[in-house]
Amino acid sequence: MRNPEMTKIRDRKMVETFYLLYDKKRIRLEDVLLRMSHDLFFLDQNYIYKRIFIYRRIYHITNN
């Protein structure tokens, strides 16, 4: 079963991981998505990309 709260937590963690790798460590976008897809979240890269930017828009997250 899907749990909406767990989905929110997962999405938040994806956003945090993305910005850590992309903004702080300066890894290329394609490499970040590949790493997140294959090593961390085991989800499709396109799905991760969409979730990151949808989550960011919904919760008004800015780059720090």
Describe this structure in words.
By secondary structure, this protein is an all-alpha fold. It has one domain. Helices cover 77% and strands 0% of the residues. It contains three helices and no strands. The chain has helices at 4-24, 29-41, 45-59. It is globular, with a radius of gyration of 11 Å. The model has no long low-confidence stretch (mean pLDDT 88).
Outline of the structure:
The protein is mostly helical and 64 residues long. The protein is 77% helix and 0% strand.
Percent helix, as a range, is over 70%
What is the number of helical segments per DSSP (H or I, 4+ residues)? Answer: 3
Low-confidence stretches: none
- Radius of gyration of CA atoms, rounded to a whole number: 11 Å
Beta-strand residue fraction: under 5%
Name the descriptors:
64 residues; mainly alpha; globular
Q: What is the topological layout?
A:
Blueprint: H1 4-24, H2 29-41, H3 45-59
Helix pairs in contact: 1-2, 1-3, 2-3
